[in-house]
Amino acid sequence: MIDSNVADFLIWAKQKQTRIADILNEALPATSIAPQTLHEAMRYSTLNGGKRVRALLSFAAAEFCHTPDTVAEAAACAVELIHAYSLVHDDMPCMDDDDLRRGKPSCHKQYDDATALLVGDALQSLAFEVLSTPQLCSNANQQVRMLNILAKAVGSSGMAGGQAIDLSSVGAKLSQTELETMHQLKTGALIQAAALLGAASGSQQQIYAVHIYAQNIGLAFQVIDDILDVEADTGTLGKTAGKDADNEKPTYVSVLGLELAKKLADELYEAAIHALAPYGEEARRLRELAGFILQRSF
User: Fold this and answer.
1) What is the pLDDT of residue 240?
2) How many separate helices (H) and strands (E) can be counted in the chain?
3) 50 close to 85: Cβ distance less than 8 angstroms
4) C-alpha–C-alpha distance, residues 126 and 81, integer Å
5) CA distances (Å), 86 to each of 2, 190, 208, 254, 287, in order?
6) More confident residue, 155 or 173
7) Residue 100: C-alpha distances to residues 90, 104, 105, 131, 228 (Å)
């Protein structure tokens, strides 16, 4: 029997996942508009499932900080578009070369390499278009800050930089500190941005708490991902299982071992929860979401 609090969270999460699917559907160009193949591939790569964890982080932080729904929805849309772009490029032969994504052929397999490259470019551009919608925020400075947060998260000091380190680390032995630096950029930066964008209307203290929370939960997300790459099968993951080990990529499991990696995930979760401790019920959704990120059970 599911605990009533868990059931309530699952209902909330499902509602938000449905809402972001509708928002993304509206934001993406229709397939009837030229260039049709590019627009079809953009929709294929963005609307084909996924847990929408980054969007849920934006929504949960927005509830905590009383950020207006229109702003929270734009933030959630933008981070999901960026995430979709990163997956399309990550799967390409020049990167991780994976044929599967979310249980379906990767974009470059369904279409071709050139289309996949353009899909990523177009999705990134669309994310900034959504977040720069005129008068999205009543305070223009707030909107500029949000754009700055997202820009930093996806550039060379964020996601792109982390991917560059990842590619150069194949076959290398990294220390735990070096591995953490890589994943704080590659995975953690966008997760942090998702939460901070949702927290746009919060007080300085609330935004700081969200920052510490997201920093820890972003790293925990990657640790869990590394564990799942070892323990889960391809059907469960929706992508090729064991690929990191096959490609000699350093992971938390290869650096620490399976048990210590699980221990680290628990410690990061506790640190994330501790950051929210002063806020009690106000931060309930963020706290619940951290638990489900740790368990990956929804």
Assistant:
1) 63
2) 16, 2
3) no
4) 7
5) 35, 10, 27, 24, 27
6) 155
7) 11, 5, 5, 30, 16
CA torsion, points 142, 146, 151, 154, in degrees to nearest 10? Answer: 170
Quick one: tokens of 271?
Answer: 């640190």
Report the alpha-carbon distance of residue 102 to residue 47 in Å, rounded: 10
Of 176, 9, 142, 167, which is closest to residue 72 (Cα–Cα)? Answer: 142
> DSSP E strands: which ranges in 39-120?
100-101, 104-105
Whether the predicted pLDDT of 19 surpasses 90: yes
Between CA 164 and CA 86, with CA 252 as vertex, the angle to 5 degrees is 35
Report in angstroms the alpha-carbon separations of 186 from 6, 74, 92, 219, 249.
Answer: 30, 22, 16, 10, 14
Distance CA 56, CA 62 (A): 10
CB 219 within 8 A of CB 192: no
Domains of the chain, CATH where assigned: 4-295 (1.10.600.10)
Q: State the Cα angle at 240 between 237 and 160, rounded to 5°.
A: 90
Query: For residue 68, what pLDDT is reported?
Result: 97
Distance CA 73, CA 23 (A): 8
Q: Does the model's pTM come out above 0.70?
A: yes
In 3D space, the residue among 191, 255, 177 whose CA is nearest the CA of residue 222 turns out to be: 191
